[in-house]
Amino acid sequence: MSLVESLRDGELLLLQFANPPVNGLSHALRSSLYAALEQADADASVAAVVLYGGPKAFSGGADIREFGQPQALAEPNLPGLCARLDAMSKPVVAAVDGLALGGGLELALSCHHRVVVGTAQIGLPEVNLGLLPGAGGTQRFPRAVGLATALQMVPSGQPRRAAQLAALPGQLLVDELAESATLLDQAKALARRVASQRPLARLRDRTVEAAPAELAAAEAQAAALPYPAPLACVQAVRGALELPFDEGIAAERAGFQRLMASPESAALRHAFFAERAAAKVPGIEADTPRRAIRRVGVLGAGTMGSGIATACLMGGLLVDLVEPDAAALARGVAALDKHLQAQVSKGRLSAEKAAALRANLRPGGDDAVLADADLLIEAVFEDMALKQSVFRRLDALAKPGAILATNTSTLDVDAIAAVTLRPADVLGLHFFSPAAVMKLLEVVRGAATAPGVLASALGFGKQIGKTCVVAGVCDGFIGNRMIDRYLEQALFLLDEGCSPQQVDQAIEAWGFAMGPFRMIDLAGNDVSWRIRQQRAKDGTLRRAQPLADRLCELGRFGQKSGGGWYDYEGREAKPSKAVAALIAAHREQLGRAPRAVAAEEIVDRLLLALAVEGERLLAEGVALRASDIDLVYLAGYGFPRWKGGPMFEAQRRGSEALAARRREFAALAHDDPQFWMP
Ligand code: NAD
């Protein structure tokens, strides 16, 4: 079947994309379109062509199913198709609704006229994959909307509404705005009007006006970013101003190929596919029955409960927030209100919408209301006996078919499920703090969790805008089990001669949003201190951390107490003399003379600690695939997206280099040889 349907309407040829869901420009579609254009050109009875998609999309761009496959670049490729449009002897009118993104927009820009629905999303998002638009977008788009707008949109990849772009003075992107219902009629009327007009209105024949201040600003902004695509986008757009069209196209092509071969683009494309792969879970099929989740009950209105309730409200769900301690409930609700208000003042939410969402909250102290909930999320203190008693109570209260979830960070989800009569309905939903903001949600599959329960939980996560990764049961799941090893290395580095700021600076310069010591100061050193104390009691503590314990004994919990590994004035971290003295005393006790540690060693010890533990999680089946682990770190731990994630980085280095580095670290007397050896 052709992916471009063709229909005659008098002297017009109507060509409609038919490649759901978003008319991705697959090889089959491109071939059909190319053939249809050839035919239209050759057929004397055709006076003009109208090219259109559906209400959902004109075209969302390249077909991601072909990404990385030979078909993606096979002839006719997208640049060739755009050149074919340039060579037409009769006008082609694009009728754009829904989306015109990436290659979809480049195709529309190669048509002679465009009728566009005002709400359509227009953009060139290639930079998000570390690329630049490679089918003339950097040359035609500035000619259509002006240099200044192109310099905002191409290096950022941010789409805009067509109506906004149509309002730009002198723009040539939109010939006419239309309503969805009348789009095709309007496009046909325009096609008839311009059928005999010559010369054809080609964007390639237009020139671009200079905007030196905007160009300099865009160049400076892009040059400050740690990956090459944004600056390459600016430079390609600059070509539209400075070069004849064909030379600009050649420069764009060269830039595209350079970026395609860059490690940063490889990493960003990996991240893109990691997001898609994470949704595919063994045992869950398209027809696995999902349970409807409309009303969520949240138990505990502390830091996490309040944040989880906020996230659920923002996702449009009805929420019961149950907390026996009235003061804690008031604090939790106040935090929730503060978050909603902040969304309003930042312009992300209208006051009316915020009020409507807030009206979906029922806060209270009586858990009887939870009988109505489709999903219950427990966020009480981290204590097994308490969690088990809460789950016995939930089991008695919840309606049949309700899903019971725990937000535990360290406890055994199976042991919690085991106290209920419905372990198949129990799973972990591990949110990250602050839960209303952080994207990551680890969905923890228990030994007995039913596929439909897992599928429903993933649907819930998506509804509230989270990036979901499925994990198996273990202490710390994926993210925290790995971060423990990373933090352990950070502490070894202090023992050996580094300062907290030296460690943080090294990994931040490599690309992390925040080094380990600033991170733990933000999260609160007391949290892991309490966990260590609990593990020492249970006999499950892997390794004592006397220096970190000492810090907490001094009340240096982190930002919240004005001091942790750093001193704080507000949020600003300052090197601490007290901590330097503490570390020096600790080294003396260990009998260690400090050595100079190179930034490269700091980075490698931290990164490879993540990758080594990640490998173990894969071997144990806790993580389903390496890209899931990468996604956890990208979405939840400030790992730089343009480096792809810890597993991707380790793979990039190659197994031999990795093994050699592991042997070196295993030989460090003070480190943990067993950890590093396979
Ligand atoms: P918190 O101390 O801030 O809040 C816990 C709340 O639960 C308190 O307000 C307490 O009054 C309430 N509570 C106690 N018993 C209850 C009961 N029977 N019914 C209803 N409410 C009850 O703790 P938190 O930081 O929000 O952590 C909650 C859970 O989330 C823990 O299991 C923790 O391990 C996990 N978690 C915490 C973080 C984090 O960064 N804080 C991140 C992920 C997961």
Produce a short descriptive summary.
This protein is an alpha/beta fold and 678 residues long.
List keywords for this structure.
28 helices; 678 residues; alpha/beta; binds nicotinamide-adenine-dinucleotide; 8-stranded mixed sheet; 6-stranded mixed sheet; globular
Structure, described:
The chain is α/β, with parallel strands linked by helices. It has 28 helices and 19 strands. Strands 12-11-10-13-14-15-16-17 form an eight-stranded mixed sheet, sandwiched between helices. The chain has a six-stranded mixed sheet with strand order 1-2-3-4-6-9, with helices on both faces. Strands 5-7-8 form a three-stranded mixed sheet. The longest helix is centred in the C-terminal third of the chain and has 22 residues, at 599-620. Bound molecules: nicotinamide-adenine-dinucleotide. Residues 299-305, 322-325, 328, 379-382, 390, 407-409, 431-433 line the site of nicotinamide-adenine-dinucleotide.
